[in-house]
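Journal club prep — side note

Before the paper discussion, L.F. wants everyone to see what a predicted structure for a comparable chain looks like in token form. Sequence:
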Amino acid sequence: LGGAPNALPVEQTETNVGVNLAVVLVCGFLYKLDSDGQASEIEKMNSADAAKKEKAKISAEVASEREKTLAGLSLMVNVGGDASRQVTVGTLNAEARQNVVVVSGKRQMVQDALLKAQIMGERFQKQNILVVPLTLTRFPAGDAAKGFGRTKAEEKPYVAQAPEGLRGDWEEYIEAEFADAEGQAMDEEAATALRDTGIVIVVKKTGKIVRRGLGVPAWDMIIADLAKED
């Protein structure tokens, strides 16, 4: 205060206080502008993400068409020993009361899924669950031509294969499923990674797709879900 040793004159002190207060007010105003600007940008980004996800959602009409397409696709099903029979997914659902789980991705993902399925193999047969492995990578003359023969995991009785001559139909179907999943991804990098992660489609014996998931399936959860009453 004025009169104290080394004190500034009262007039200058009042001026400094006024200047400091003005600086604080300006800084506060600028901070609010910056904060409001960030909040606005975040809101825009969230709105864009929400709009993107909403647009990527599968409509009831598309979902129904997808189920019809899947029902018309054929599989080679083991009927005992080395014998197999070609039959559509729809026939398996309606006549054999079979649930179907399609596992599609790069070879490593598909093999990991089949190996994990072996642990509870008896439960697949007991609950009428067929697993359809569909490796994304296309080989001109089949897997064996590239050194990939069928593994023991692929020869289990609960595993059904897409007929070699009809793989194109299956690939067309699964590409549509991947396109939907990529449309719901957070960004381009996540969308690209989906091919490595793989996709799982669970079809109940009613013919309805009840689950779409990513990555190696949690078989115990899928089996439990399919065991529930319709």
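L.F.'s comment for the group: The two ends are 84 Å apart (CA to CA). Keep this in mind when we get to the figures.
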